[in-house]
Design brief:
globular, single chain, mainly alpha
């Protein structure tokens, strides 16, 4: 009888950086992200041709091809940042935040690209980049690190510095103007503050300041006032987008009208971006929509669970804030599609068409994966 020697796929003596990453990365989170990206590519084939025809492109798969490119770039960014250790995650986040803020200043002084009355984009090699999408996750990581410094160097200046970075970023978002992203970043920042162990007086101050700012924005920004008044009055303003989205979801029923048979993608200008969920619900039905919702919910819950197990204060607070960014953006987009809140111009992470959204989401989850790596592994001293 002869015996064949076998070698384990991941030998315990192998300590290369790639093997360490494979051992320590959360494959459940990574698998959920890849599933959402695959759904996004599928939906780009469903909604892309109608959008291409609406915008006058000869190639019906113009948006599908671009979304594939964006998805590839997002995957590379997510995997690349997930391989960083916590120190390098913070350094990379600081570099990205500096560059993103500089680009946002450049946009505000007239160097940006205007669309739909807002200046949020910069044109690079034929593509539009929204720097704020990269600034959000970078700010959360830096805030988590700054707040964690109180454990070693007790001093009130750490909270003040974190708040200054936050105020500058949100201030530039409001000047674009982008109220929806400002709200999203504020909630994620508050979660980061709360998880880092700051006293309730800070939460009360944020609540009071946020309420006052919301009232000020309502009074000063006509488009904010018009959206809110129109949504709650339901007799004022243009409700065509949310009405058509609601009709499409209802029309889909349990199993949908079939791939390619939906009507909403030809009637909504933002069907391939903000209202991609309505397209999916119409063509694939309620069951498919519930599966998508479940994936988002499970991914966020798993992320919070992983963050709660992290012993390092910086990584725990920052990862909780990052998963809040991801989950709350998905919740806002879905709420708009279900006519629960006014339109916000916010994409569905990994599913909606958009390069900036894909890169921003890839960076968000990549940094989060880097911060929660190594729970329960032999590399706990380095990562956990």
């Amino acid at each position: 009888m002869s015996y064949v020697a076998t070698t384990p796929l991941l030998a315990r003596s192998d300590t290369s950086w790639f093997t360490e990453w494979r051992r320590t990365v959360d494959w459940g989170l990574l698998g959920g992200a890849f599933f959402l990206i695959a759904i996004g590519l599928l939906m780009s084939l469903a909604a892309g041709p109608s959008a291409a025809a609406r915008y006058g492109y000869d190639n019906p798969y113009f948006f599908s091809v671009r979304q594939t490119m964006f998805a590839g770039a997002g995957v590379v960014l997510m995997l690349g940042t997930s391989m960083l250790d916590r120190a390098w995650a913070r350094r990379v986040a600081a570099f990205i935040l500096f560059i993103a803020l500089a680009l946002m200043v450049y946009i505000l002084i007239g160097g940006g690209h205007e669309a739909k009355g807002a200046q949020r984009w910069i044109r690079i090699a034929g593509f539009s980049l929204q720097p704020s999408e990269l600034a959000k996750p970078a700010l959360i990581v830096i805030s988590g690190w700054l707040l964690a410094q109180r454990e070693q160097y007790p001093n009130q200046i750490w909270e003040a510095v974190a708040f200054i970075f936050f105020a500058v970023t949100v201030g530039m978002l409001l000047l674009q103007p982008d109220v929806g992203q400002s709200f999203l970043l504020t909630v994620a920042f508050i979660v980061t503050f709360f998880v880092s162990g700051l006293p309730w007086k800070w939460a009360a101050a944020f609540a009071g300041g946020g309420t006052a700012l919301a009232g000020l924005l309502y009074a000063l920004l006509p488009h904010v006032r018009a959206r809110l008044n129109g949504f709650f009055a339901m007799k004022e303003g243009d409700h065509s987008q949310i009405d058509r989205a609601a009709e499409a979801i209802a029309r889909g029923g349990l199993f949908g009208v079939g791939p390619g048979e939906g009507h909403v993608k030809a009637r909504l200008p933002d069907a391939h971006t903000d209202f991609i969920f309505a397209v999916m619900a119409e063509e694939f039905g309620l069951i498919a929509a519930i599966v998508l919702l479940a994936v988002f919910a499970l991914l966020v819950l798993r992320g919070f669970r992983a963050a709660a197990r992290v012993q390092d204060g910086y990584a725990r607070a920052a990862s909780a804030g990052l998963f809040t960014l991801f989950g709350l953006q998905a919740a806002i987009n879905l709420a708009v599609n279900l006519a629960l809140i006014p339109p916000k111009g916010m994409t569905l992470p990994f599913v909606s068409y958009g390069g900036s959204s894909m890169l921003g989401t890839g960076l968000t989850l990549g940094l989060a994966l880097a911060l929660v790596r190594g729970q329960g592994t032999r590399t706990r001293g380095r990562y956990g």
